[in-house]
Amino acid sequence: MRAFGDATRRNIADACASFARLPDAVEPPTLKRAAVVLALTASNDGDDTAFLLTRRASSLRSHRGQWALPGGRCDAGETPVEAALRELDEELALRLPAHAVLGLLDDYPTRSGYLITPVVVWAAESNAIAPNPDEVASVHRIALDTIERDDAFDFTSIAESSRRVIRFHHQMSLIHAPTAALIYQFREVLAGRQTRVTDLEQPVFAWK
After folding, report:
1. Crossing angle, helix 6-18 and helix 179-190, to 10 degrees?
2. Measured between alpha carbons, how far is 131 from 121 in angstroms, rounded to an integer?
3. d(CA 141, CA 133)
4. Which positions ≥6 away from 16 have C-beta within 8 Å?
5. CB 89 within 8 A of CB 95
6. Could you give the CA distance from residue 48 to residue 65 in angstroms, rounded to a whole number?
7. Torsion of CA 92, 96, 102, 105, to 10 degrees
8. Distance (Å, rounded) from C-alpha 96 to C-alpha 120?
9. DSSP letter (8 states) at residue 207
């Protein structure tokens, strides 16, 4: 169990600082920039540390009803960190300052044409979360112990790709990449491992 408090915040900040991100591509970008948030907060019982996971609203034009980390496309002139904090506020009414950021994980290129930057933040006060119904159907607190189980993730294959498809098992649901890949890398960072996930595949339904 990772008790929610300053000691855990420092430990996770140190783990993020020790993680060496892949360098940014030097060629002109062909993918649209986006950012998502691994927002760390208290679990449902208030003792453990958890991250926030959402279910996308059924009214959205793309990826409706899917599990996702809070986030979205970067606006013009906006950094991934700025976009991540803005999207967290817009989706969950959770407004955090820049110093809440603990670190960044590797950029993940999606089949749908985005380059996603995962931003790890510490959300000390999250009792007033208010999901925006236009974007979020529900919000869930996933204890870090959940993703550290040996059976939390598995890998399978599809005929359309030679790359492994990652799956995160959560409450009788299968969560796929990109979300599963980003959560998996965060799990690895917590364990002090430099594990890359850009080669992990998404299921075909997420390619659009």
Report:
1. 100
2. 18
3. 18
4. 102, 103, 104, 120, 189
5. yes
6. 27
7. 40
8. 12
9. -
Greater confidence (117 vs 66) lies with 117
φ, ψ at 189 (rounded to 5°): -60, -45
According to DSSP, residue 44 is labeled T
- The residue type of 129 is I
For 143-200, the DSSP string reads EHHHHTSTTSEEEEEETTEEEEEEEEEETTEEEETTHHHHHHHHHHHHTT-----TTP
pLDDT digits (tens, 9 = 90+) for 127-178: 779 998 888 889 999 999 999 999 999 999 999 999 999 999 988 889 999 9
CA angle, 82 then 86 then 87, to 5°: 120
Say which amino acid occupies 125. E
Residue 172 has a CB neighbour count (10 Å cut-off) of 5
